[in-house]
Amino acid sequence: AQSVAQPEDQVNVAEGNPLTVKCTYSVSGNPYLFWYVQYPNRGLQFLLKYITGDNLVKGSYGFEAEFNKSQTSFHLKKPSALVSDSALYFCAVRDSNYGQNFVFGPGTRLSVLP
Amino acid sequence: KAGVTQTPRYLIKTRGQQVTLSCSPISGHRSVSWYQQTPGQGLQFLFEYFSETQRNKGNFPGRFSGRQFSNSRSEMNVSTLELGDSALYLCASSPYLGSGSSYNEQFFGPGTRLTVL
């Protein structure tokens, strides 16, 4: 069975500081990994994905994520946080085995303080 | 390209009633998924459709059903509403091509906020 964990409900960071939002996963096959962001009263917006290849993936709005197979992790990072980055972040996984659906983590609320 | 649209955006129903929610995917996308989002349970997968066929189903009771039309538009129906069905229902479309597993990201609509009184 697939599963995703986001160990932190809330992450607080000062504007201009680097941020990390953590994600670990479990799948039986190879993982397809995704990060999404949700602003209040909005749907989810895609940030980036890892399918194969380079372990460091760059995405929208200056975000990047590092795939670590041995630690089954896919942490989201940004070198310098902005107040406008404050939102709810979801990690998702889809097993490469045919027929598997997306599984989302519980979400991490990021607050960037001015 | 227009994004995923969902109608209605807000809905208030009473227990025991039924409701139908609609989703129009991005033009050219043939895969549509539905999710229920609540503060306590997070994002829960309901079902996924591709070319009018249900490809996957989540762990929800039979009161939750869906379908997809030949133009890829999708509807979901909830019968005999319960208070616990109050949630944001999200639809997502994907350019899945129908062969093998999909590594394509999903594009989400703004959701339908359902309140059951």
Key attributes of the depicted protein:
heterodimer; A: mainly beta; four-stranded antiparallel beta sheet; 12 strands; B: seven-stranded mixed beta sheet
Report on this model:
- The complex is a heterodimer of chains A (114) and B (117).
- Helix content of chain A is 0%, strand content 53%.
- By secondary structure, chain A is mainly beta.
- The model of chain A has no long low-confidence stretch (mean pLDDT 93).
- Chain B has no helices and eleven strands.
- In chain B, the strands form two sheets. In chain B, strands 2, 4, 5, 6, 9, 10 and 11 form a seven-stranded mixed sheet that branches.
- In chain B, strand 4 (31-38) and strand 5 (42-50) form a beta hairpin.
- The A-B interface holds A 32, 34, 36, 41-46, 49, 51, 90, 94-107 and B 4, 33, 35, 42-43, 45, 48, 55-56, 58, 90, 92, 100-103, 105-111.
Query: Which descriptor suits the 3D outline of chain A?
Result: globular
Number of helices of chain A: 0
Multimeric state: heterodimer
Distance between the termini of chain A: 41 Å
Alpha-beta classification of chain A: mainly beta
Q: Stretches of chain A where pLDDT falls below 50 for ≥5 residues?
A: none
Q: What is the averaged pLDDT score of chain A?
A: 93
- Counting DSSP H or I runs of 4 or more residues, the number of helices of chain B is 0
- Which regions of chain B are unreliable across 5 or more consecutive residues at pLDDT < 50? none
Number of DSSP E strands of chain B = 11
Helix/strand-derived category of chain B reads mainly beta
- In angstroms, what separates the terminal alpha carbons of chain B? 37 Å
Largest sheet of chain A: 6 strands, mixed
Amount of beta strand of chain B:
over 45%
